[in-house]
Design the sequence.
């Protein structure tokens, strides 16, 4: 069911009530289980969902960090297209979606750029030009053996995340006792586009004997391919409301997306264990994500801002964007470990490369209406519907005005080398270990954009007939949110501009200002000690990270190009203290105090700038990194197979958080009317409660002994202060905001049932509304917020034979939409519908 954010408390109260009920049920069921099994030898046959949950909980229980885990079988059993959607099932984790698919991961209310992603222990750089966040929809779920979200960092880990580190581990031959292979085929049907799409995946692993060893060398390979055809329908105002005159709309746009998305992923891994004292590995992963998108749109700009149901004159346009974009991620990790008496030596060398390539494409082709469209208006402020005459749908009334043509290539590479040395020793009769080491990493990010603007076609001798939309018309657009009219042919646009001299239309300003080269060299070292005292485990240590940053780019100052090179360095000492206490064999308490640091995004650090008279837009290479002091405290109780209940509180004090602002009227920009950039805030606070419960009711009488229940909820609050110039008062002004991308409530509910042949799972994911984008310091009404969302998915597995399984999955059963509003939930900034997706497949597994 679609939930409006104008009533956020009802969703929060429901999740709180459910969680408390689940906690009570867990306690009661644990007591009943204990009573029924008293004096008996416990024997539980676990298959499918329960087995994967139990395996993940064991890893979570043993960890020195607070983390959540999903294992490969668990990923396969969730109706998830990619790694991001698998991660969102964990406590404290939510995702940002793109075209209905999970894309970026948020942890404990902190935005995706404040978290890091590693594959087999090495950092994954971002394919996108302005971001640090890694779009995890690039990684097919089938290539993952385990997925962890680490929320407290020990000193031997990179300190580059405020919310958490998403760690992806790929398949190893030592995950299975011998020959293992699996293959699956699938067809998915998208209800919005009425398209059916194929998917194939497989994995194989085996062990071999080398030298005098037995099964000491392992090889594992995985491959996945999917092509998905789908689409969405959108209407958006971008927040163009005049609230000073009673919520009148200035303009809005209707968009229809047709997308073909192809994913290809592969991994080849080697493990070698020559003896009991040493082990070596090579992990490789390649993933390719290709998006072909066609976007037809119509836009209306009213001569005067209008209220709903009012009529007036309006300018109309029809537009086309057509592009192909390919993102690639490559990761190679070579490492090993060797026992040298009481010493353990380990090391790892990693190389990762991400890229995003958008070859020459139509960034925007705009056709303008010949005359004003009189008597135009709209109704419905949440999903604006166009009121307009039939002239708007006649292609003869539009002619080509401008074509923007672009191509862009971004590369981001990261190379690192790590060495660790640990020694076990006895401290006054207690087991202890000292560990120290260092790491060097070298990161380089390059962006190259070329842009051309084709306009003033009349001056080129083209006739009105040649420019008329009827010459470029392509069918009728299927648009679920109202009447749309004709589509636009991309090939006809390309044929027209293909006959022109491209050099005459090159946009040097747009091209040069967006080009940059940035490097980030980090040298790190640490010292830590682990001490076990009876039922206590303590970890204390210090990490040092020194950063050298350089940026090269170009700006334009009133038409003149200027080079802008920047260099700076900074140093961080990051202490950490972890404690774990075993209350009894099934219950443990955890506490951690840590410090972490995150560098600003590359878009925020960009050296490019544009100064045009008294208006300026620029990045800020001198931004300080974000620093956070983190406190975590919680309790975990484990209840047999696949059973746990936990509660954690967390608090984060964040210094130097970054936000966008207008600095006109101050400092070097005192004479400017606009000067948009990024700056550091003083401090922000984030605190919350994280609850989780999981249980398999295998002691109940059949058929209830197949029931599984899982639930988690995270309740958080944030507070940050921003400052900016207020033109009305002529001075600086402050106001309080929530941290961007921070939802107060995130929750998951899973109800499952399984026996030896059938497995069923119904899951729901809820995320409350959150701040998306800030407006001016004195214009809170135009802040953009993303509304609450609840996604409901269903999956079923039926074993036709011991090795052959029939799979059915249904995603977004409630047809949840994506809604962004300006200031108040009644006023649209963006609304988008996707529709449900249904999948049917076969999986063959041998092990």
Sequence:
């Amino acid at each position: 069911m679609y939930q409006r954010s104008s009533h956020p408390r009802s969703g929060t109260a429901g999740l709180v009530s459910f969680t408390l009920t689940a906690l009570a049920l867990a306690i009661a069921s644990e007591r009943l289980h204990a009573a029924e099994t008293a004096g008996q030898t416990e024997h539980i046959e676990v298959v499918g969902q329960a087995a994967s949950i139990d395996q993940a909980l064991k890893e979570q229980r043993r960890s020195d960090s607070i983390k959540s885990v999903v294992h490969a079988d668990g990923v396969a059993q969730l109706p998830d297209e990619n790694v991001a959607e698998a991660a969102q099932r964990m406590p404290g984790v939510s995702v940002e979606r793109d075209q209905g698919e999970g894309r970026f991961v948020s942890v404990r209310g902190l935005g995706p750029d404040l978290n890091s992603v590693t594959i087999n222990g090495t950092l994954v750089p971002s394919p996108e030009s302005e971001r640090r966040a890694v779009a995890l929809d690039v990684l097919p779920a089938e290539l993952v053996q385990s997925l962890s979200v680490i929320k407290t960092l020990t000193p031997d880990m990179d300190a580059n995340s405020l919310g958490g580190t998403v760690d992806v581990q790929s398949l190893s031959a030592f995950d299975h006792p011998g020959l293992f292979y699996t293959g699956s085929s699938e067809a998915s049907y998208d209800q919005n586009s009425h398209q059916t799409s194929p998917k194939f995946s497989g994995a194989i692993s085996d062990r071999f004997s080398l030298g005098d060893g037995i099964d000491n060398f392992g090889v594992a390979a995985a491959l996945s391919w999917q092509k998905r055809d789908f689409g969405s329908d959108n209407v958006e105002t971008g927040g163009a409301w005049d609230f000073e005159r009673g919520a009148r709309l200035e303009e809005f746009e209707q968009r229809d997306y047709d997308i073909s998305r192809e994913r290809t992923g592969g991994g080849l891994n080697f493990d070698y264990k020559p003896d009991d004292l040493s082990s070596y590995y090579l992990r490789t992963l390649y993933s390719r994500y290709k998006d072909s998108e066609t976007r037809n749109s119509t836009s209306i700009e009213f001569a005067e801002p209008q209220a709903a149901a009012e009529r007036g004159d309006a300018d109309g346009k029809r537009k086309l964007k057509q592009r192909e974009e390919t993102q690639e991620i490559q990761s190679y990790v070579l490492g090993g470990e060797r026992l040298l008496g009481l010493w353990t030596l380990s090391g790892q060398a990693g190389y990762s490369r991400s890229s995003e390539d958008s070859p020459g494409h139509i960034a925007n082709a705009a056709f303008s209406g010949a005359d004003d469209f009189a008597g135009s208006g709209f109704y419905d402020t949440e999903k604006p519907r166009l009121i307009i005459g039939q002239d708007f749908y006649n292609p003869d009334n539009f002619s080509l005005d401008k074509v923007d043509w672009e191509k862009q290539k971004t590369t981001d590479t990261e190379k690192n080398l790590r060495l660790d040395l640990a020694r076990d020793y006895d401290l006054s009769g207690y087991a202890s270990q000292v560990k120290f080491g260092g790491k060097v990493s070298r990161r380089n990010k390059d962006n190259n954009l070329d842009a051309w603007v084709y306009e003033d076609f009349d001056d080129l001798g083209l006739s009105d007939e040649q420019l008329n939309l009827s010459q470029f018309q392509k069918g009728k657009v299927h648009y679920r949110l109202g009447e749309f009219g004709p589509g636009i042919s991309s090939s006809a646009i390309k044929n027209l501009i293909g006959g022109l001299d491209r050099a005459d239309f090159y946009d040097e300003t747009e091209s040069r200002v967006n080009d940059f080269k940035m490097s980030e060299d980090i040298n790190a070292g640490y010292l830590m000690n682990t001490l076990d005292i009876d039922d206590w485990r303590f970890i204390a240590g210090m990490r040092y990270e020194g950063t050298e940053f350089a940026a090269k780019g170009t700006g334009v100052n009133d038409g003149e190009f200027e080079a802008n090179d920047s260099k700076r360095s900074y140093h961080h000492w990051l202490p950490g203290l972890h404690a774990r206490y075993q209350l009894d064999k099934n219950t443990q308490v955890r506490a951690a105090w840590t410090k972490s640091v995150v560098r600003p995004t590359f878009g925020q650090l960009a050296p490019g700038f544009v100064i045009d008279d008294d208006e300026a837009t620029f990045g800020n290479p001198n931004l300080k990194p974000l620093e956070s002091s983190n406190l975590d405290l919680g309790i975990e109780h484990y209840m047999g197979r696949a059973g746990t209940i936990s509660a954690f509180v967390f608090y984060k004090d964040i210094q130097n958080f970054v936000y966008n602002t207008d600095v006109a009227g101050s400092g070097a920009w005192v004479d400017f009317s606009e000067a948009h950039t990024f700056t550091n805030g003083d401090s922000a606070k984030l605190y919350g409660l994280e609850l989780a419960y999981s249980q398999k009711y295998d002691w109940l009488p059949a058929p209830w002994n197949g029931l599984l229940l899982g639930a988690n909820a995270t309740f958080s609050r944030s507070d940050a202060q921003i400052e900016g110039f207020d033109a009305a008062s002529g001075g600086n002004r402050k106001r309080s905001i929530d941290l961007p991308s921070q939802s107060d409530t995130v929750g998951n509910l899973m109800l499952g049932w399984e026996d030896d042949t059938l497995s069923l799972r119904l899951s729901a994911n809820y995320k409350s509304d959150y701040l998306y984008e800030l407006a001016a310091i004195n214009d809170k009404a135009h802040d953009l917020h993303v509304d609450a969302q609840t996604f409901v998915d269903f999956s079923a597995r039926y074993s036709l034979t011991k090795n052959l399984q029939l799979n059915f999955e249904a995603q977004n059963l409630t047809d949840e939409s994506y809604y962004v509003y300006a200031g108040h939930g009644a006023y649209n900034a963006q609304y988008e519908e996707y529709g449900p997706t249904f999948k049917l497949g076969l999986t063959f597994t041998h092990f």
About this structure: Helices lie at 8-36, 49-62, 72-77, 83-87, 464-467, 490-498, 508-513, 602-605.
